[in-house]
């Protein structure tokens, strides 16, 4: 995850200089350039050359992946601002489907020939998609949409500074909540597979177990899109947070649970983890975008680019700091006590997401009541 870090610095500058279609097509072309590096590892001699080439491939690949990720989110949320939660959910649904399909097809392609074949196939698909992206350009001179009811408008002649969102409490609550989704992945990466060795799973069954999480993430993405559509994103973000805390309660299970480790508990935990991570990321991302609109920031690529950049930055922070801490804790205390570190964090943050949901529900009802009172007053004046 460390190579992703420098990639978030680049896209937000591009948003104010080039059009959306050029940005995505250029980042997609750059993303293609990493595949020759990955393929070359197969023919690379061993030793120092192989190590150096691997480091270059990982660093460059992580950089362009981050650029493409931020660019894609910035473009779609700018173009479809009123449906940002739904479109993010669709993208994450496709991400989950791609992970499941890639796990199967990648192995099949390697069995068909060797390690480089999946990268030849995927690179070809990316190149063939670039003309389609260039052809379907952004609609020129798109007018900003009207700000939502009750939005805080800046004074005439002044411009709201985007960096001030970084000390906005509600904005930061959403950032921490979505960051926890990648904290969970970062914790599982070095610790879950060694813990599962006690069950003597075959490679196939181990792959199925991991696929349960991706399948659950896909289902969770679909539900997150639905809750965003009905304006209940904060509720589902809280529900997802609760799900992830419960998942780590039964995964070990927790030392205070009088139950030996059971494989069925791992499957249930992975199911709750997948749905919960989808809810955390999609709903919090959507809430962050809607909050910037309510704060009076313009509906343009610069705003969505900044928000997307901050989102990916928080994700990367969670992803690169968690694995070494997780490995150290599990090595020192074993998995069941060590996993309580993450369980405690998730449990601590759960009531904060609950309060966030209650606060947004209260402000929405108050705003609706004020609008109704104003309409009644206008109607009485006309009468």
TrEMBL record:
Pfam families reported in the protein's UniProt record: MFS_1
GO molecular function, one term: transmembrane transporter activity
Keywords: Membrane, Transmembrane, Transmembrane helix, Transport
Ranges annotated as spanning the membrane: 49-73, 85-109, 115-134, 165-187, 207-227, 234-251, 263-289, 301-320, 340-360
Principal subcellular localisation of the protein: membrane
Membrane topology type: Multi-pass membrane protein
Subcellular localization(s) per the UniProt record: Membrane
Domain of life, per lineage: Eukaryota
Any single Gene Ontology cellular-component annotation: membrane
Naturally occurring in which organism (per UniProt): Rhipicephalus microplus
Tagged with keyword Kinase: no
This protein's name: Putative vesicular amine transporter
